[in-house]
Amino acid sequence: MERGITTYLKRNNPVTVTQRLVNYKKVRSLLCLRPVSLEASLEAERKKGFFRQNRWRFSKKVKCLIVFAIVAVMLVSIFAFLPRGSQSTPNKPQSSDNPTASPSATNNQTGSNTLSQFAQFFSNLAGSAAQAFSPPKAPGLIESAQTINSTVWRAVAANAWQYFQPGVGVDSNTGLPYNGGTRSPYFTDWDLGVYIQAVIDAQNLNLTTTDGAWGSYARLDKVLTWLETRELNATTSYPYWFYQATDGKDYHADSDKATVPVDVVDTGRLFVALNNLRNFNNTLMTRINNITLYGQLYGRSNYTALVGGIASSATSNSIYAYYVCSGFASFWPNQLANVTDTILNNIFNSGNVTSPYGNVSLPNAPISCEPLLCSVFELNNTDSSRLMGLMSQVYLAHEAYYNATGQYVAFSEGNSPNGFVWEWVATGSGDTWKITQSGSSSYLDMKPVVYNKVAFSFLALYNTTFARNMVVYLEQSLPDPTNGYSDGADNSGNLVSSVGSNTNGLILDAALYAIQNNP
What we know:
The chain is an alpha+beta fold.
């Protein structure tokens, strides 16, 4: 301590070090005086007896905080006895060419700065103490469940459905979805497909009725009416990339960044949902076919002209291509009947790459959980056994990663502390567990986000201890799902607490799958 006091005095006060040390030692000697009277001695003994008899138990962290507090009090007492040093007039601020420049603090305000530092120290100490004594977060839905059954999954689905309420994730006037709640009131055709599928899921889960202003029929009618009349790009006659949920018009800020006439990935995702919608309610089949198959006859987009380009994806080994092609194939089966099977063949025929965590073998193909899970939950696939085999490999790779590292992983795409990212379980170029950003082929050096939608999906598919513990970790880390589930968190507790349609749409998918397959 003497060395620390000496350093402080050298740096902050012109009074000699020797004189200050004398003062300091005097103070210390005063603080160390023992009680000499009998009365004082008895009082001290009574106090010692009290502490011997108390039954409190303090954690190591709390004990450290108490020690720090005592040391801080002693330091404050010491500095109170020390001379304040020079009382010279502060330097006059220098003139500046910038009339708005603020004068900087001078080095002569030692006493004030010291008090400010101690005030900040005590503020931080109080915050740490409050954190140490604050009760742990109450167990979440999954943690408190005895068994993960259909009752639990309906409650999970109800939480996710809260996001799609008017004024939360859906505009109250237009009935169009927000990509990320009111903070991001825009959407693409991908987001619109997520919303359509969410309404179908909610109806199947009895979370909404068919009638009423916000029943499933009214919601879906608003969406179809908008698709039948939405503003199209005058140059391409295809949809703009982004639309404003508040009025349904082009959102130029993002649409103007588009580099292709139409985003076929977003379109394919929308087609998956529209095909599921016409199967869900066949009275809407004509309207849906007029939007997709015969759009050019009604002054809408000529999607048939895109089918040839989609067929060329038969050379791809990407799970994204598989999912998107499946959406188109549901409307143009004759032209694309074999393309989806060919893409799946390509994935399995790409050779293998071994994950360095647990030596799990994976196809050497671009694989991310988002399109894979959507394919499992949303497609009426004739080759479901191979698709489920791929899903199982990807899940086992995640569990092996945790067993080897003690770190949870739930790779997908979504928001992160570094913006929107794609997490690849396999890249197709021999690498595994890599993260990229849009417009860059370089891998990001960042902690992967454990995405809530993937964790819940693993739980719905396999109901393992690993999947359950991962969901519990996210329950404890993230805010309660009052308006839907947050996106995720990394293993260091960095939260991605944004609440959006992709997360809650996929969790609804997962809940419905769990109830239908494991009642």
